[in-house]
Design a protein that fits this description.
The structure holds two protein chains of two kinds. Chain A has strands spanning about 10-15, 20-25, 30-40, 45-50, 55-60, 60-65, 70-75, 85-95, 105, 110-114. In chain A, about 30% of the residues are buried. Chain A contains no helices and ten strands. By secondary structure, chain B is mainly beta. The chains are: A mainly beta, B mainly beta. Chains A and B meet through strand 4, strand 8 and strand 9 of A and strand 5, strand 6, strand 9 and strand 10 of B.
Chain lengths: ~110, ~110
């Protein structure tokens, strides 16, 4: 598959461990955030989103935490599996202005060791 | 498979040339988004169309243009190509005009400018 972002920060975890991927966002006015997963050779895939009136949201095996004070977002993956190996991007948006353009972070590569 | 199709999968061309990338959204989706993913710039939103009309513009160069046709497929035209235009170009579609959490990405077109 194709490789994008050869110099991305990489997080290597053992299968079954929990993973935490971090993201610092840039705009204090952003009020909507998304995590995407991108597997090699594929387009990004929506994982989970969170609005700024929340500080935590849980999905299936994933949890997103938002700390607006320090403009920090994290994605926690429980019981990481080999299929979780991918590049993970956070994205931010300002909903109030009606902006429909997301600003993406540079991504983190997650490698799951069997 | 997201249901979004993009052609061609790969495209190799020379500087100064013009190319057209094509996207067919998921059945029933009215909104099409174009993104560029390059090694140095990461993932960037270019432009969005909704039901044939331009809805939002991002970091799209003047050498680039797009349109959405009555059958809802979209084309991204890139002209006077430069080496720096080499990237993955993704199309995404959604039912409505602002639903990022319902945005489905296609597999991308890899453009190489020599």
């Amino acid at each position: 598959g194709e490789s994008v972002g050869l110099h991305l920060p990489t997080l290597s975890v053992q299968e079954g461990d929990n993973s935490i991927i971090n993201c610092a966002y840039s705009n204090s006015a952003s009020d909507y955030f998304i995590w995407y997963k991108q597997e090699s050779g594929k387009g990004p895939q929506f994982i989970i989103d969170i609005r700024s009136n929340m500080d935590k949201r849980q999905g299936q095996r994933v949890t997103v935490l938002l700390n607006k004070t320090v403009k920090h977002l994290s994605l926690q993956i429980a019981a990481t599996q080999p299929g979780d190996s991918a590049v993970y991007f956070c994205a931010e948006n300002i909903m109030d202005t009606g902006r429909r353009a997301l600003t993406f972070g540079s991504g983190t590569r997650l490698q799951v060791q069997p | 498979d997201s249901g979004v199709t993009q052609t061609p999968k790969h495209l190799i061309t020379a500087t100064g040339q013009r190319v057209t990338l094509r996207c067919s959204p998921r059945s029933g989706d009215l909104s099409v988004y174009w993104y560029q993913q390059s090694l140095d710039q990461g993932l960037q939103f270019l432009i969005q169309y909704y039901n044939g009309e331009e809805r939002a513009k991002g970091n799209i160069l003047e050498r680039f243009s797009a349109q959405q046709f009555p059958d809802l497929h979209s084309e991204l035209n890139l002209s006077s190509l430069e080496l720096g235009d080499s990237a993955l170009y993704f199309c995404a579609s959604s039912t409505t005009s602002g639903s990022f959490n319902e945005q489905f990405f296609g597999p991308g077109t890899r453009l190489t400018v020599l």
